[in-house]
From TrEMBL:
InterPro entries: Tnp_DDE_dom, Transpos_IS5-like, Transposase_InsH_N. Residues 134-149 have a biased composition (Low complexity). Residues 134-158 are annotated as: Disordered. Pfam families: DDE_Tnp_1_2 (PF13586), DUF772 (PF05598). The lineage of its organism: Bacteria, Bacillati, Bacillota, Clostridia, Eubacteriales. This is IS5 family transposase. It comes from Alkalibacter rhizosphaerae. Residues 366-454 form the Transposase DDE domain.
């Protein structure tokens, strides 16, 4: 059940300040709260609660505001509730009518907030926030054209719009907080979870435990795990034994299921993941390979895949891969998000079309790295009158020095998207995703991009006041 507020969001003058404390109306959390169009988000959020009975859900401003504060400072759920209880500016930001000394909600409710506010909702909220910021910017509203809710190409322009603006596009990976996957370690974890299922079934139904050789299996695993220099033959020997232990435990589970014993709802998807893991590891062991399609790197998060980065520090990362676009105003948007590896060059045309739907015209230039400069993308940009960064195909032109100067400037301007990656990863939680569910992981990534834009808007307002 959700109860939408009939009145507008509380203003700063309506906030009941604590006795003896005068709050600053220019505080960043106060100004940021006044710039976010909470009412537009609340309409879609209320649709998640069709029932008219039951407990009343917390307002959207409280849910989204709390998550923004958490992503900014990296608070744990319990620490966030403590901070909300102690800080009146935080309480104003999440929409409370006045300062209160009690916690606004229990820490466990934050899990529900992350499940309810999906990545799609956050991406849409990101568009609203960018549009509101652009409409308030007198110097750039005409160029950006994003202050209207309707795309400008639907407003019936008589003449063909001239290409203007810049679109920067690049891809990165948001690594998840998992242990570095090793084959023998994953098999050992699978064995332990299967043994826990067997113990639970035997305990609930009074059955004698079958022989699982768990002590011998644990000893075999530790013998390799504690070895600093691991030979190839020793690794294969350990994997072969762990495969045997897992196969035996799976056979016991199958016998229990055939006998009429059931698994819990939590154990069913876990068993499917372990079966798939065993099949993959058995295939790689028998074929002497380290590659398999849709390879599982985490039992708790089976949707994660290895993402090859090619970087010196981290050649392979494990998390979601996404394409991020940055416009001429410096605002970032997620163009594509996937847990499976993909070629980012396929996102360029869609990103350019999304830019046109927002502004009513194509960008004058698109700044990308080499992987985006495929022949199909070059032809597409040529047809749309968009200049794609990078050297041209064929022999150098007569204005070679001029082209080199333009290419250098494009490379300098393209650094803006790298700056956005660095800022989001170091300051807004994108460097290590700690959520466990697939939907909450995507929501955390979208929330990090949204928070990056929010505080960029705050910085622009600060410099506008100075100059």
């Amino acid at each position: 059940m959700y109860r939408s507020s009939d009145r507008s969001q509380p203003g700063f003058l309506d906030f009941n300040q604590p006795l003896g404390l005068k709050m600053n109306p220019n505080n960043r959390w106060v100004t940021m709260a006044n710039q976010i169009p909470w009412e537009k988000f609340e309409e879609k959020y209320a649709g998640l609660f069709p029932s008219d009975t039951g407990n009343v859900a917390k307002p959207l401003r409280m849910a989204l505001g709390s998550l923004i504060i958490q992503i900014k400072y990296g608070f744990s759920d319990r620490e966030l509730v403590e901070q909300l209880t102690e800080n009146p500016y935080y309480q104003y930001f999440i929409g409370l009518s006045g300062y209160r000394e009690t916690a606004p909600f229990d820490a466990s409710l934050l899990v529900s907030f992350r499940k309810r506010i999906s990545a799609e909702m956050l991406m849409e909220a990101n568009e609203y926030i960018i549009a509101a910021a652009s409409s308030n910017d007198d110097n750039n509203s005409d160029d950006s054209g994003s202050g209207s809710d309707e795309p400008l190409d639907k407003q019936g322009a008589a003449e063909k719009p001239v290409n203007k603006g810049t679109l920067i596009l690049d891809a990165t990976c948001a690594p998840s907080n998992i242990r570095y996957p090793q084959d023998f370690s994953l098999l050992n974890e699978a064995r332990e979870k299967l043994e826990a299922m067997i113990d639970r079934i035997c305990k609930d139904h009074g059955i004698c435990k079958p022989r699982t050789y768990r002590q011998e299996a644990r000893k075999n695993y530790l013998a390799l795990a504690k070895t600093k220099k691991r030979s190839k033959s020793k690794i294969r020997k350990t994997i072969r034994k762990q495969l045997g232990y897992v196969k035996r435990d799976l056979r016991y589970i199958d016998d229990f299921l055939e006998g009429g014993y059931a698994l819990t709802e939590k154990e069913k998807p876990l068993l499917r993941t372990i079966r798939l893991l065993y099949e993959q590891q058995d295939y790689m062991f028998k074929n002497h390979t380290h590659s398999v399609e849709n390879r599982i790197v985490s039992i708790q998060q089976p949707y994660l895949r290895p993402i090859v980065r090619g970087k010196v520090k981290t050649p392979v990362e494990f998390g979601a891969k996404f394409d991020l676009s940055v416009d001429e105003m410096g605002y970032a948007r997620i163009e594509k998000l996937s847990f499976d590896p993909y070629n980012e060059s396929t996102c360029l045309q869609k990103a350019v079309e999304n830019y046109k739907s927002r502004t009513g015209h194509y960008p004058e230039r698109v700044l990308v790295d080499q992987i985006y400069r495929t022949r199909a993308n070059r032809e597409y940009c040529k047809d749309k009158g968009v200049r794609l960064s990078g050297p041209k195909l064929g022999r150098p032109s007569k204005n070679h020095e001029h082209d080199k100067a333009i290419e250098y400037q494009d490379n300098v301007d393209r650094i803006e998207v790298e700056r956005a990656f660095s800022l989001s990863k170091r300051c807004y939680g994108l460097g290590l995703i700690k959520t466990k569910l697939k939907e909450t992981t995507t929501a955390t990534i979208a929330l990090s991009v949204l928070a990056t834009n929010l505080f960029r808007i705050q910085l622009r307002l600060f410099f506008r006041l100075l100059f």
